[in-house]
């Protein structure tokens, strides 16, 4: 086979999250980071 096929990557565009969803995700991320920094829920 002398022909080479170039595979084209299809990028599926995800619709952007709404403002409320983004704030909710940011708050969840911040809570997770706070828990990690504080050593867990108990904070010891």
Automatic annotation (TrEMBL):
Give the superkingdom in one word. Bacteria
Q: Where is this region: Disordered?
A: 1-27
> What's the protein called, per UniProt?
Uncharacterized protein
**Species in which this protein is naturally found:** Streptomyces boluensis
């Amino acid at each position: 086979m002398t022909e080479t096929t170039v595979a084209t990557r299809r990028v599926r565009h995800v619709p952007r999250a709404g403002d409320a969803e983004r704030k909710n995700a940011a708050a969840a991320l911040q809570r997770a980071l706070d828990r990690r920094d504080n050593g867990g829920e108990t904070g010891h």
